[in-house]
Design a protein that fits this description.
The chain has about 325 residues and is of the alpha/beta class. The protein is built from eleven helices and 14 strands. The N and C termini lie far apart (about 45 Å).
């Protein structure tokens, strides 16, 4: 019987044992993700507001490119490329970035182990991130069990993954923030998945093509640059998420015409643009960035910008996170 998945923050942290497990897991995963600095980090002479994004060509980095256009040089911003939201929290905690894009569930899980992360302030709710479950169209070969006391090998068979729940007991490659989310999902569902951490989407997709893993989990806004770059000739596809979920998660359909995927139900979670607390000149710059985004939100939604802006609701509530405020401004 499938265990009911209850992924809201209160249930994840319910009881001391579960809270300790989540914090320990988050810290262990973050240590691995943060081991190597990004080659694309801004130079030391950057005097602007440093914004932690993600890999080039994926959701957060594409949103940053749109921000540069909207700001039009009125506020200097510099991009800190990372592996995604989990990595961004560390960059903010260690002052490698002033602002950053993060998932609300990841912030909720990580704040218990780091006061700097707990103190981050909301600048703006932004788009959703989606769990992309990438598998091989034609499945992968699995050698049959040995028979007759090991004297005869069974025939190989082909396993095809058609949906998320087919991944029970399977090996799965995880990228970036999915290294935490994938493990949390498995813990709550009891699927017994076996995880391999991959350095990026290309490496994870390669493992799928070779049949070394049954699927790759990668997280991005829609459309994901790396998934959008695939073709049907790649032999890769996406499968739907079919497990029961609850807040802060949703299930929304995604389309990727390039790999003939339509109305594919995907696990979604909200993103936020956050900042470290500031009181001086940096606070004024962040206030200006916030104001300019709000003033230009209609253009961002209707103009030649990322589709992710269409999901932005600037009045959306983020439970537990304080809103950004300049000195002397009431909450």
């Amino acid at each position: 019987m499938q265990r009911n998945l209850n992924l809201n923050r209160s249930s994840i942290c319910k009881g001391n044992k579960m809270k300790k497990f989540i914090v320990a897991l988050a810290l262990a995963v973050s240590t691995a993700v943060f081991a190597a600095p990004s080659a694309d980090a801004p130079q030391a002479d950057c005097t602007g507001v440093k914004i932690a994004t993600g890999p080039k060509g994926k959701g957060y980095s594409n949103l940053f490119a749109d921000l540069q256009k909207v700001l039009g040089g009125r506020v200097q911003i510099c991009e800190v490329n990372t592996q995604g939201g989990l990595d961004n929290l560390n960059a903010l905690s260690t002052k490698e970035a002033d602002m950053g894009f993060v998932q609300i569930d990841t912030w909720g899980d990580m704040k218990g182990g780091d006061d700097n992360i707990a103190a981050l302030q909301l600048v703006l709710p932004v788009n959703n991130n989606y769990l992309h479950v990438v598998t091989a169209v034609n499945g992968f070969a699995v050698q049959g069990e040995r028979k007759l006391m090991g004297m005869m090998k069974g025939d190989a068979k082909t396993v095809v993954i058609n949906r998320f729940s087919d991944l029970r007991g399977q090996r799965v490659a995880l990228v970036g923030s999915a290294q935490l989310l994938g493990r949390q999902l498995d813990k709550r569902l009891g699927y017994g998945m076996q995880f391999v951490d991959a350095k990026d989407d290309a490496a994870a997709f390669d493992l799928v093509k070779k049949g070394e893993v049954a699927a790759a989990f990668t997280i991005s806004g829609w459309p994901s640059g790396t998934v959008k770059s695939l073709t049907q000739a790649s032999g890769l596809t996406m499968v739907p998420f079919d497990a029961p979920i609850s807040d802060p998660y949703k299930v929304k359909p995604l389309n990727y015409k390039n790999i003939a995927v339509y109305n594919n139900n995907s696990l979604a979670v909200s993103n936020v643009l956050v900042t470290r607390p500031f009181t001086g000149q940096r606070a004024a710059q962040i206030q200006q960035i916030q104001d300019l985004i709000r003033q230009n939100l209609t253009e961002l939604k209707e103009g030649n910008y990322q589709p992710a802006w269409n999901e932005v609701n600037p009045t959306a509530q983020v439970p537990g996170m304080n809103s950004f405020k300049t000195a002397g401004t009431k909450k």
